[in-house]
Amino acid sequence: MSALSETLRADQTRVERALDARLPTSAAPPARLHEAMRYATLNGGKRVRAALVYAAGAALGAPPSALDVPACAVELIHAYSLVHDDLPCMDDDDLRRGRPTCHKAYDEATALLVGDALQTLAFQLLAADPDLNIAAGQRLKMIEVLAQATGSLGMAGGQAIDLAVVGTSLGLAELEDMHRRKTGALIRASVHLGALASPAADEKSLQALDAYGRAVGLAFQIVDDILDVEGETATLGKQTGADEARGKPTYPALLGLSAARERARALLAAALESLAPLGDNGRLLAAIAEFIVTRKV
After folding, report:
1. Number of independent structural domains in the chain
2. What does the alpha-carbon distance between residue 176 and residue 184 come to, in Å, rounded to a whole number?
3. What average pLDDT does range 254-272 have in this prediction?
4. How far apart are CA 135 and CA 154, in angstroms?
């Protein structure tokens, strides 16, 4: 196992443990809702967003214990977004991470409430979790960053555009704007939250990390589009070919597979270049960027 694989595995274990401790127990009423929240959140996944929180914080000297809460917050937002994206009124998916989607395992109304509850829990943790031992101003900034990434100017807005353009053609600039919102905004916020957990964060390092987050966030979506064409359902844990079947604009559909891969590599180069001001402290972030662009799942 490579050093990066070991680090990612350790981050997965750490954030799973932190999430398990912060999610309501399935025994607490309303039991079915709490059980479904845990089903939707504690079901594996790459935990790339949490890994980016840990790596960005570590690059600026923050210990892992200072990063658990923002790592949980971004994973709760991500879990909520997947639950809602899978609903029949959205993408109508039956499979997520190799298991029935939340609305299939429970029901549509429960899945809707699961997403609502996970989203609010994320902000509750940033506002009040005692393990996040930072100044009130830093907490407020984290809440602002995550809210902007999640709302109409970020993830929700990207999803709205995605639904509106099914069956139409987009230019490259329009496609990138959609994906910078829908997928890239939360990845960018993950990097930002990790940096904000460190007292060593300054304007220069924040700008460098923000440029990195923007590039990596878009590259992630391009690779997702490529895997939807080339991947296998059993490997990815979700149905492949769904974007083409629904008539969604994607990078391979617009540019072709070869040009889409080239765009992802160009974004990787931009991400690596942005880390230069961090020196050796950016090494883990660089490795994660390379993993994101070369992954097969």
Report:
1. 1
2. 9
3. 95
4. 26
Q: Which of 148-152, 163-167, 173-177, 279-283 has the lowest mean pLDDT?
A: 163-167
What is the distance between the alpha carbons of residues 24 and 76, in angstroms, rounded to a whole number?
A: 13
Q: Report the 10 Å Cβ neighbour count for 178.
A: 23
**Secondary structure of the chain: what % helix, strand, coil (to 5)?**
75, 0, 25
List the beta strands (DSSP E) in the chain: 95-96, 99-100
pTM (2 d.p.): 0.93
The confidence score (pLDDT) of residue 297 equals 78
Mean pLDDT of the chain: 93
| 77-35-149 Cα angle (round to 5) | 5
Distance, in Å, from the CA atom of 32 to the CA atom of 114, rounded to the nearest integer, reads 10
Q: Which domain holds residue 28?
A: 3-294
CA distances from 295 to 19, 221, 227, 281, 292 (A): 25, 12, 9, 23, 6
Q: Considering only CA atoms, which of 195, 297, 284 is closest in space to residue 7?
A: 284
Is the CB of residue 254 less than 8 Å from the CB of residue 172? yes
Report the CATH number at residue 194: 1.10.600.10
Q: With bands split at pLDDT 50, 70 and 90, how would you rate the model's confidence at 166?
A: confident
Q: Which of 141, 149, 132, 134 is nearest to 189 (CA)?
A: 149
| Contact of 213 with 191, CB cutoff 8 Å | yes
Model pLDDT, residue 167? 84
Helix and strand element counts for the chain (H, E): 16, 2
Residue closest to 145 by CA, chosen among 185, 88, 184: 185
